[in-house]
Amino acid sequence: MKRVASVIRLRPEKEQEYRELHAAAWPDVLAALHRAHIGNYSIFLRDGLLFSYYEYTGDDLQADLARLAEDETTQRWWRLTDPCQEPVTSAADGEWWAPMEEVFHDDGPR
Fold first, then answer.
1. Distance of alpha carbon 10 from alpha carbon 82, whole angstroms
2. Is the CA virtual torsion 109, 107, 49, 17 positive or negative?
3. Mean pLDDT of 87-103
4. CA atoms of 79 and 89, how far apart (whole Å)
């Protein structure tokens, strides 16, 4: 299992729309995420920043993300959510959600 975290800025005027979209996330989008071996997916909001976290259980993250990006329902979903977001200033060229480095993790008592 691989933990993946990323960050993006939420446009303030789009916060309510973004919240409403995710309060009623499309089942077909969730199914596409599961087919891509993505689970335990959360998005958090603070001070205009969206922080996402998910756990990847497949063998080829880049290939699964590429297949996810080809999913027509997911593409329609992104056409609604993308205008709500803008990359952080430190994002690389062409990067939307910017990956974050894990600097600490604890699995709890053993």
1. 10
2. negative
3. 96
4. 22
Q: Which two tokens stand for residue 105?
A: 């993790």
* Tens-place pLDDT, residues 29-86: 999 999 999 999 999 999 999 999 999 999 999 999 999 999 999 999 999 999 999 9
Determine the Cα–Cα distance for residues 57 and 33; give it in Å rounded to an integer. Answer: 11
Widest CA span of the chain, in angstroms?
45
Would residue 90 be called left, alpha or beta, if left means φ above 0 and alpha means ψ between -120 and 50 degrees?
alpha
Name the H helices within the chain.
15-23, 27-35, 61-70, 72-81
What's residue 110's pLDDT?
85
Angle at 99 between CA 93 and CA 103, to 5 degrees: 140
Give the pair of three-digit tokens for residue 50.
């969206």
- List beta partners, residue 52: 6, 43
List the catalytic residues.
Answer: 22
Mapped onto helix, strand or coil, the DSSP state of residue 78 is helix
